[in-house]
Write a structure and sequence with these properties.
about 775 residues, 47 strands, 30-stranded antiparallel sheet, lipopolysaccharide transport protein A fold, 14-stranded antiparallel sheet, mainly beta, 5 helices
Length: about 775
C-alpha cells in the first residue's frame, strides 16, 4: 500500500454529486468524496464524506481522510475499511506513512481470507510492507462476534506468507480458558513452508503410548521432504523420511521407514529357516512418473519390506500402510501390492508408442517375504514387449496383430535363462445374413529358450523351441426392443439381448523338457466352448436445464429436445464346456483332488451391474458349480451416497473349494465388510467400519468414529478393535491450527507395564507360503 500523492487533477463532481481527483502512484489512485479541498498553508489535502480511494484491487474507505503531501503521511477516521485481495481491516482510526509503507490501526479487526484468520487488537501496527505487530491481541478462525475459540497473546508478530508468533498465549473457548502456552508459532500463509506439523498421539495395547512428530521441509517450489519421528513405548523409535517432487519432467513420492524393534514378533518360516526374530525392520516404498524428450513414459514402483508381518502390524498412522496406499493412489492412480501379499514387487517400466506399435521395457524385482534369503524367487531383468496393434492387411478384410516379448530370468537357484516369445495372429471379422457377427482368428506361437544354470550339460546353453497353433471363432448377434416409458424425465427404455459363443483350440505339445519360469511355459492343450448371453438396459433421459432460458417467440420450428443415454443395467451369464476334461482319464486328475474328480462343465459365471445414478452402484460376480450345487465364488459391492455427503459401502467375498482335500481351511474364506458415513445433523457425523469373517464367526476389524465439526473447530472420538490391538482416541482440532489435543486410552490395558509381561504375553505369528 505505497502511495505517492501529488495532485494531477481535481475534477468537478461526478456521479452522485461527489468530487473526484487523481493522485500519482504506480499505478495511479483515484479518490472520490463528497468534498475535497486543499489547505495550502498547511500543505494538506482533506477529503470528507464517503471517502473512497481505489487502485486496482485495493480500496480505502473512511468518513474523513487528511493527507500531508510534504512528508507523505496521512490519517483516516470514522468507519475506516482497508481492503485488498489478501486482507481486509476494519478500524476506527488509521494513520500511515506511505514513504515507508508503515502505519497503525486503532480498535482494528483484520481478516485474512486465504487462511480464514481473524486478528483483533486495540492497536495493530504495520511495521513494514509484509509485517504486522500487536502488543496484545486475539487470533481466531471463527466467524461472528462471539467466537467459539480464540488465542489471546502478547507481542504478536505476523509475517505475510510466513508465521504468526505469540508469547504468553491462552487458548480459550467462548466461556472459559482451557490452555496456557508460553510461546506459540502458527502458519498464516498458503504457500508451502518448512516447520513442525501437527503431531499424532495414540495408545494401543500392542505398541503402548505412541507419539508421532512430523517436520516439513520445503526444499523448493517443486520439492519437499517430511521427516517423521514416532516413539512407541513398547517398540522403540521409528524414523521415516518422505521425499516428494514435481520436477525433472515428472513427479514422485518416496518413503523410507526404519524401526529398531524392541518387541518384534517371532515369525515361523518354513524349513529350513525355522523361527526368526527380526529387530531391524524397515519399509522402502514409492512411485514416480516421468516423460522423456524422446517420448518414453517411465513409471517406477518401489516396494521393499523387511519381513512378512511389518505391513500388517503398522498399517495405520502417518507412515502406515493404509495412508501410504491412499497417498500413492491419489497421486498416481495405482497401488502397491495388498498388505498381506508376501510377493513385493519393484518395477521400472518404460513405454513408448511408435505408430501402431507399443514397446515396453521393464525391470521387475520380486522379494518373497516367506523366503528370508529370497533364493528361489524369479527376477525379470529385463522384460521387453513389442505389441503390434490390430491393423488391416492392405485392402483385404483381414487384420493382423502380433505380441512379442523377450525376458531374461534370473534367481539364485534353479533355472535361469533367456526366453523369446512371438505370437502373430490373423483375424477375419464378417457379418452374415445381416444379423450374425463372426470373427474367426488363427495364431501361431513360437517360443525360444536359452537356459542357464540348470546343472545339466545337455540343457545348459542349448536352444530349445516350442511351437503352438491356436484358433478361435467368436459368434454373436443382438436384438432389442424399445419401450415407451414416460416416467418422469425417462422417456424410453431399450432392452438389448446379445447371445455369444466362442470356440477356442490350442494344439497339444509336450513341454516337460522345457525350462519352467512362469505359466507361459506350460500352455496346456485347450478345446473349449464358451457360451452365454448378455442383457443391457439403456434409458433415454430428457436433459433438463438447471437454469431455464429466457422465453423467445415461437417461430413454428419444431423444438429440439436434448437427451442423454445411460446404460444402467448389465446382466450376463456364461459357461465353459471343456472337451479335454471330458475325455480325461480319472487317473490324470489334478493334485489334491478326489479320485472321482471329473468336471467338463465349468461353473456358471454370473455378472450383474446396476448403476441407477451417480449416487447408487451395485455389482456382483459369482460362480455356481452345478456338480456340488453351490456357489464356489462370489463377490459383491454396493455403493450408496447422497448430495449432503452420507455414503454407505459394503463388500462381500466368498471362496469355497468343494473338491480340494488338502489345505481346505487355508483356501476357503467368507468375509463381509462395510463402511458407513452418516451426517446425523448439522455439524455431527458418525462413521463405522467393520470387517467380519462369516466362516470363522469372528471380527477382523471394527472401527467407530463420532465427529462434531462446527465452523471453526472439531471434536472426534475414535475406537478401533483388531484381534491383537485396540485403542480409543479423543481428538480436538481447530480450523487453521490442526489437531492440537489428543488423548488416547486402551481399555483394560495400562499405559506402561513391565518388560517381562510384554514378552510373555506377546503372540507368536506363523507365516506359510499360502498367506
Amino acid at each position: 500500500m505505497i502511495l505517492i500523492f501529488s495532485v494531477l487533477a481535481l475534477g468537478p463532481a461526478h456521479g452522485a454529486d461527489q468530487a473526484e481527483m487523481t493522485v500519482s502512484g504506480d499505478p495511479a489512485w483515484t479518490m472520490k468524496a463528497d468534498r475535497i479541498f486543499e489547505d495550502r498553508e498547511a500543505d494538506v489535502f482533506i477529503a470528507e464524506g464517503r471517502v473512497k480511494i481505489v487502485r486496482e484491487g485495493e480500496v480505502i474507505e473512511a468518513d474523513r481522510v487528511r493527507f500531508h503531501q510534504k512528508d507523505r503521511t496521512g490519517e483516516a477516521r470514522g468507519n475506516v475499511v482497508i481492503a485488498s485481495p489478501d486482507f481486509k481491516i476494519v478500524c476506527r482510526r488509521f494513520i500511515f506513512n506511505l514513504e515507508h509503507a508503515i502505519g497503525k490501526f486503532y480498535d482494528g479487526k483484520a481478516y485474512f481470507p486465504d487462511n480464514h484468520y481473524y486478528l483483533r487488537g486495540d492497536e495493530i501496527e504495520k511495521t513494514g510492507p509484509d509485517t504486522l505487530f500487536v502488543m496484545k491481541g486475539e487470533i481466531t478462525t471463527c466467524d461472528g462476534p462471539a467466537p467459539a475459540w480464540m488465542l489471546t497473546g502478547h507481542n504478536i508478530e505476523i509475517q505475510r506468507e510466513g508465521y504468526a508468533t505469540l508469547t504468553h498465549v491462552t487458548l480459550s473457548t467462548r466461556h472459559f480458558p482451557v490452555l496456557y502456552m508460553p510461546w506459540l508459532k502458527i502458519p498464516v500463509k498458503q504457500k508451502r513452508q518448512s516447520g513442525l506439523l501437527i503431531p499424532e498421539i495414540l495408545s494401543s495395547n500392542r505398541d503402548g503410548m505412541t507419539l508421532s512428530m512430523p517436520y516439513y521441509w520445503a526444499i523448493s517450489d517443486s520439492k519437499d521432504m517430511t521427516i517423521y519421528l514416532t516413539h512407541m513405548a513398547y517398540r522403540g523409535l521409528e524414523s521415516c523420511v518422505e521425499f516428494r517432487y514435481k520436477d525433472w519432467g515428472g513427479k514422485g513420492i518416496y518413503r523410507a521407514t526404519y524401526l529398531k524393534d524392541e518387541e518384534p514378533p517371532t515369525i515361523e518360516y518354513d524349513d529350513p529357516f525355522g523361527p526368526r526374530v527380526e529387530h531391524d525392520r524397515f519399509w522402502l516404498r514409492g512411485m514416480s512418473d516421468m516423460t522423456t524428450q524422446s517420448g518414453f513414459d517411465i513409471k517406477l514402483d518401489l516396494d521393499y519390506v523387511s519381513d512378512p508381518e511389518y505391513l500388517d502390524e503398522f498399517d495405520r498412522g502417518f507412515t502406515g500402510f493404509q495412508r501410504t496406499q491412499t497417498v500413492l493412489f491419489n497421486e498416481f492412480g495405482r497401488e502397491l501390492a495388498e498388505r498381506l501379499d508376501p510377493m513385493r514387487k519393484s518395477t521400472l517400466l518404460a513405454t513408448r508408442d511408435i505408430g501402431n506399435q507399443t514397446m515396453n521395457f521393464a525391470v521387475e524385482l520380486t522379494d518373497d517375504l516367506n523366503d528370508p534369503e529370497n533364493r528361489e524367487t524369479l527376477q525379470r531383468v529385463p522384460r521387453i514387449d513389442l505389441i503390434y496393434q490390430r491393423t488391416p492387411i492392405g485392402g483385404s478384410p483381414l487384420y493382423f496383430q502380433n505380441d512379442s516379448s523377450y525376458t531374461y530370468f534370473t534367481r539364485n537357484t534353479l533355472d535361469m535363462g533367456h526366453r523369446l516369445d512371438v505370437h502373430p495372429r490373423v483375424y477375419w471379422p464378417l457379418r452374415t445374413g445381416g444379423w450374425l457377427d463372426l470373427e474367426p482368428s488363427f495364431g501361431f506361437r513360437e517360443t525360444l529358450y536359452y537356459p542357464l544354470g540348470t546343472g545339466d550339460p545337455g540343457q545348459d546353453s542349448q536352444v530349445n523351441t516350442r511351437e503352438l497353433l491356436d484358433a478361435q471363432i467368436d459368434a454373436s448377434t443382438s436384438f432389442s426392443r424399445v419401450y415407451d416409458l414416460g416416467f418422469g424425465s425417462v422417456e424410453k427404455l431399450k432392452h438389448r439381448i446379445k447371445p455369444m459363443i466362442t470356440a477356442s483350440v490350442i494344439s497339444d505339445r509336450s513341454q516337460d523338457n522345457l525350462p519352467y519360469f512362469d505359466q507361459v511355459d506350460r500352455l496346456a492343450e485347450q478345446q473349449q466352448l464358451r457360451y452365454g448371453i448378455v442383457n443391457y438396459l439403456t434409458a433415454k433421459v430428457r436433459r433438463e436445464e438447471r437454469f431455464p432460458r429466457p422465453a423467445v417467440e415461437e417461430t413454428g420450428a419444431k423444438k429440439q429436445e436434448q437427451y442423454d443415454y445411460y446404460d444402467f443395467l448389465r446382466f450376463a451369464v456364461f459357461r465353459v464346456y471343456d472337451f479335454v476334461e471330458a475325455r480325461r482319464s480319472l487317473e490324470a486328475r489334478p493334485v489334491n483332488y478326489p479320485l472321482d474328480f471329473h468336471r467338463p462343465n465349468q461353473p456358471w459365471e454370473i455378472e450383474f451391474e446396476l448403476i441407477v445414478s451417480p449416487y447408487f452402484r451395485f455389482q456382483t460376480t459369482s460362480q455356481f458349480d452345478t456338480y456340488s450345487d453351490s456357489f464356489t465364488d462370489h463377490s459383491m459391492e454396493l455403493h450408496v451416497q447422497n448430495q449432503r455427503g452420507d455414503f454407505f459401502f459394503m463388500e462381500y467375498n466368498l471362496n469355497l473349494e468343494p473338491y480340494t482335500v488338502v489345505d481346505k481351511d487355508v483356501l476357503e474364506y467368507e468375509q463381509i465388510q462395510f463402511f458407513l458415513n452418516l451426517n446425523v445433523v448439522e455439524d455431527w457425523s458418525f462413521q463405522i467400519r467393520r470387517r467380519y469373517s462369516l466362516m470363522d464367526e469372528d471380527d477382523i476389524e471394527t472401527f467407530y468414529s463420532v465427529q462434531f465439526n462446527p465452523q471453526c473447530w472439531g471434536l472426534r472420538l475414535e475406537y478401533m478393535d483388531k484381534p491383537n490391538d485396540r485403542y480409543v482416541a479423543l481428538i480436538w482440532s481447530l480450523l487453521g491450527i490442526g489437531d492440537i489435543g489428543t488423548f488416547s486410552y486402551t481399555p483394560g490395558t495400562p499405559f506402561f507395564r513391565e518388560q517381562k509381561d510384554r514378552i510373555e504375553t506377546e503372540p507368536t505369528t506363523t507365516v506359510s507360503p499360502t498367506t
